[in-house]
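Problem 12. The chain below contains 478 residues. Write out its predicted structure in token notation.
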Amino acid sequence: MDWTAGSDDGARLGRLPRSRGDRLRAATLRVDPRVAAIAVLLVHAVVFLWLFKLPGLYYETGSDTQKVFWPATQRMLAGDIPYVDPHFFVEYPPLATAVFVLPGLLHPPSLRAFDFLFAVEILLVDAATLPLIAILARRAGISALGAVVSYGLLIPLLGCVACQRFDLVPALLVLGAALALLAGRSSPAWLLLLAATLIKVYPLVLVPFFLLYDWRRGRRRGVFIYVLGLAGFLLAWYLAAPSSLGRFMQWETRRGIEMESVQGSVVEILHLAGLPVRILSPAQAFGSWDISAAPTAALGSLSTLVMLTLLGALYLSYGSDIGLWSWPRLRRAPAASSPARGSADLPSPLEEARALLAYVTLAVLVLLLGSKLFSIQFLLWLLPLLAVQPYDRVRTVALALVATALSQSIFPFAWDGLLALRPVYVADLALRNALLIAVGGLVWLARGRERKRGALEAARDTGTMMFGAPADAAAHTG
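Solution.
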């Protein structure tokens, strides 16, 4: 696979460097993205397998590998079946258990050995993610090198959760599904999206984008594969362990406001102004640290309403962008086809890729910022997408780097301070969430500017065709 730079980067290569900045850019563009990917993987290997395993720095802070994955793996290897056994409940969808039981198949002799093998597994997932990042970047017309480097910086900055949770697995599957969809492989795309959904539920919010993309091209089979696969999985689960499915649904729907969420930040700031609050431990809540106060129920309902409204607006906007429908304000003038814009009926492959990646990124951001649940590892769903989304990349990646660093400063290093609601750590978390909101705003505004430019170019082309014809041609038309 040719991991070359984006089309706009290729145009820069034709210019002779006139300044230090131009010379630096030209030298950077000569770096092979494959070399950069290997370098990133080597750095991640050192970070995942050594730095994040240093006793006293990261390892002893506690993680799901110690509290959930290792005990569950031991029980499964002993013959117990999760969900079917009423006394063996796992908080994740059943397919997720396959992810963390894999290291256990090598029969590690201790928790420390299991934790290391789990990090190796996540490193392999990381290795599979890098080529997808490069290929998607090229499809979106941006630098594959820049996307690989951005991803390489973002993941380690998140801290030890990157290799102590399995959230990078569904993120990889989502990237693969997006690439398959853009390549015209509808059925594999939906199967990958289904697998991601059965590991973590969040890809459900991406289904409308895949559906609209296929519907515009007259493809219907993929969504039926997804729906039938999901329904069959849930039916099998219900028949095997009906009480377990009910408990899982209750677990997901009755959870309170997590401390790291945007709503949690609001309540924590109100607490600094005098609002009485109560901190709920994972044993008291549904496996997470929650914050409870008088306005939390109303705040949770309001944020859910806002989140659903914003997601609906994204779906409508995406449908308009790909030509399924038009609004008077956004309707394009008819234009002849061109390599840059495609045809009057369908956008070009470049436009398709840029639109899909931008909207998928925005949807995941809206879900994270609007949901009552926002654990630090959920950022692993977002960071690979931010590396390939094509709009306002310098500022969005810069803000994301700061946000991920702030996330690591909270967990594991200042988690006790946040639980104590000390003002500096409350401000730290609020700034992190504000930066993520700013990232979403930058992507949305940059996408809007490009869409307006496309409409103006289409209108200009239409004017040229109508009024720029030769005089004799105009006479014949009269």
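Discussion. The CA atoms of residues 85 and 118 lie 25 Å apart. Students who got a different answer should revisit the alignment rule from Section 12.3.
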